[in-house]
């Protein structure tokens, strides 16, 4: 690692799960009729060819994890389950009425919150309710996130019986001091239990989420966490950089002193150490924060250059239309983004009024669509071709902004394409920022992003 380069490029920047990024969506938002129009357009273009994706946000958790930047609702009252799912299914019916013909679902992902907060009975009610008005696409994938402390064998079996073959467990770190600081105490035995049960039931891909940069993490604790992870041999490992944004997420991320966080080159060393250990145990690096066994669909997709990145991170394939259901979910019609109301009360009120419950969004311009494609290429394949829609002027402006990165030998520029070098992989967010016309034209006056490294 070059610590000077890390210090130089470790600046606030987007993670590019979308372009434009949410802070730079048009201030006026998106008209509901425009959102409906782009949704129908995308559906008509792609439903028969590739199907659609559903992201369903299940926001409830029994306790607050202080590292979490998700929209969630903390409660131990499980009476909230049924009314919430009834609203989600009502929202789905609004979309089915809009689309006109039966959707062919290629992918469903249950995110949280804690999806396994919900009972097996209610999870079955949700998925069976979705398919009352939809069919499975020929290549169907159903995945979900689970909390090791709150996932039962019955839930695992029920979701498998409903068609899920992939799940993901939030591990984060096994060190007890770190776990107490982030309010996420779970033993290795608990993780092993749900991992082994998943294997026994027949799940084909199991993912573990780890985070580096958490309070009190050390080289020793990361080695121990990864050693334990490798012992269970998950098919995928997401190794996320902790995004410390307490000015956005409030009290949840102020549960510890910022001085307890590993900084800059120390934090990056924890990533490089993890990367080395993953490589030694047969994993392949995917993008900037994922690893997978060569047999996993994510690795195969990367080899075939079909990998995609969206609001769920890296995925093995894309659909033009992704509908987000539930409080705060974000939908993507390729031509536009739309986010649902962030509070359960506002979300429920709109759905009960028969209104698709978006409260903001962005209609992509022709330039947005071109830049979006370049940033996706860089984030997924670490290269992009210049001839994909960029004017000579914009290309020259991008090259000017990339001059230091090129001079630092982090990337190569050819007549027809730009390629990120292996040692430049850690700076891919910085490289994408040179393409981000919305960011350049509207530099934020206050800090709104986490650090890039």
Describe this structure in words.
Helix 8 packs parallel to helix 10. The protein has two domains: 322 residues, tm_1862 like domain (pyruvate-formate lyase- activating enzyme); 88 residues, Arc Repressor Mutant, subunit A (Orthogonal Bundle), CATH 1.10.10.920. It contains 17 helices and 19 strands. It has 453 residues and is an alpha/beta fold. The protein has a nine-stranded mixed β-sheet with strand order 9-10-8-7-6-5-4-1-13, sandwiched between helices. The model has no long low-confidence stretch (mean pLDDT 92).
Write the layout of secondary structure elements.
Blueprint: H1 3-9, H2 32-50, E1 52-58, E2 60-61, E3 73-74, H3 81-99, E4 104-112, H4 120-130, E5 135-146, H5 153-161, E6 166-172, H6 176-182, H7 188-201, E7 205-212, H8 219-232, E8 236-241, H9 246-249, H10 264-280, E9 284-286, E10 290-292, H11 297-303, E11 308-310, E12 313-315, E13 322-325, E14 330-332, E15 336-340, H12 344-352, E16 358-363, H13 366-381, E17 383-385, H14 392-401, H15 403-407, E18 411-413, E19 417-420, H16 428-435, H17 437-441
Helix pairs in contact: 3-4, 3-12, 4-5, 5-7, 8-10, 13-16
Kindly report how far apart the N and C termini lie: 12 Å
> How would you sum up the global shape?
globular
Uncertain runs with pLDDT below 50, 5 residues or more?
Answer: none
Number of helices: 17
Looking at the chains present, what oligomeric state does this protein adopt?
Answer: single chain
Summed up, the domain count is: 2
Strand arrangement, major sheet:
9-10-8-7-6-5-4-1-13
The CATH class designation of the largest domain is Alpha Beta
Q: Which second-level CATH architecture of the largest domain applies?
A: Alpha-Beta Horseshoe
Percentage of residues assigned to helices = 25-40%
CATH superfamily annotation of the largest domain: tm_1862 like domain
Derived structural class? alpha/beta
Average of per-residue pLDDT values: 92
How does the major sheet shape up? 9 strands, mixed
């Amino acid at each position: 690692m070059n610590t000077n380069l890390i210090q130089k490029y470790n600046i606030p920047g987007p993670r590019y799960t979308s372009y434009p990024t949410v802070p730079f969506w048009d201030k006026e938002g998106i008209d509901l009729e425009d959102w409906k129009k782009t949704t129908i357009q995308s559906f008509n273009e792609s439903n028969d060819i590739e199907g659609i994706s559903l992201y369903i946000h299940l926001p409830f958790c029994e306790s607050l994890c202080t590292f979490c930047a998700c929209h969630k609702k903390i409660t131990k009252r499980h009476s909230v389950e049924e009314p919430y799912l009834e609203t989600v299914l009502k929202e789905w019916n609004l979309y089915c009425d809009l689309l006109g013909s039966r959707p062919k679902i290629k992918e469903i992902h249950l995110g949280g919150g804690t999806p396994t907060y919900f009972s097996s009975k209610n999870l079955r009610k949700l998925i069976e309710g979705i398919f009352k008005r939809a069919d499975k696409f020929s290549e169907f994938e159903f995945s979900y996130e689970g909390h090791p402390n709150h996932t039962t064998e019955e839930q695992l079996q029920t979701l498998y019986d409903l068609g899920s073959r992939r799940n993901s467990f939030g591990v984060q770190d096994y060190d007890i001091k770190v776990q107490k600081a982030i309010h996420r105490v779970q033993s290795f035995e608990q993780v092993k239990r749900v991992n082994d049960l998943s294997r026994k039931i027949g799940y084909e891909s199991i993912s573990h989420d780890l985070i580096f940069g958490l309070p009190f993490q050390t080289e020793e604790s990361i080695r121990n966490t990864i050693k334990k992870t490798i012992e269970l041999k998950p098919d995928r490992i997401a190794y996320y950089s902790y995004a410390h944004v307490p000015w956005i997420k409030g009290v949840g991320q102020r549960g510890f002193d910022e001085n307890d966080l590993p900084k800059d080159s120390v934090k990056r060393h924890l990533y490089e150490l993890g990367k080395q250990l993953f490589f030694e145990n047969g994993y392949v690096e995917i993008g900037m924060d994922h690893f997978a066994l060569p047999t996993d669909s994510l690795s195969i997709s990367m080899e075939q250059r079909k990998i995609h990145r969206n609001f769920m991170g890296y995925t093995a394939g894309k659909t033009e239309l992704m509908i987000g259901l539930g409080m705060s979910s974000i939908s993507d019609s390729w031509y536009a983004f739309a986010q649902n109301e962030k509070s359960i009360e506002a979300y429920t009120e709109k759905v009960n009024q028969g209104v698709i419950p978006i409260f903001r969004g962005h209609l992509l311009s022709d330039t947005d669509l071109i830049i979006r494609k370049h940033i996706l290429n860089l984030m997924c394949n670490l290269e992009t071709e210049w001839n994909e829609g960029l004017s000579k002027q914009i290309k020259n402006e991008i090259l000017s902004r990339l001059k230091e990165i090129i001079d630092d030998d982090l990337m190569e520029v050819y007549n027809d394409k730009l390629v990120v070098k292996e040692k430049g992989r850690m700076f891919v967010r910085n490289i994408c920022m040179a393409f981000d016309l919305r960011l350049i034209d509207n530099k934020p006056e206050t800090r709104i992003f986490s650090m890039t490294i």
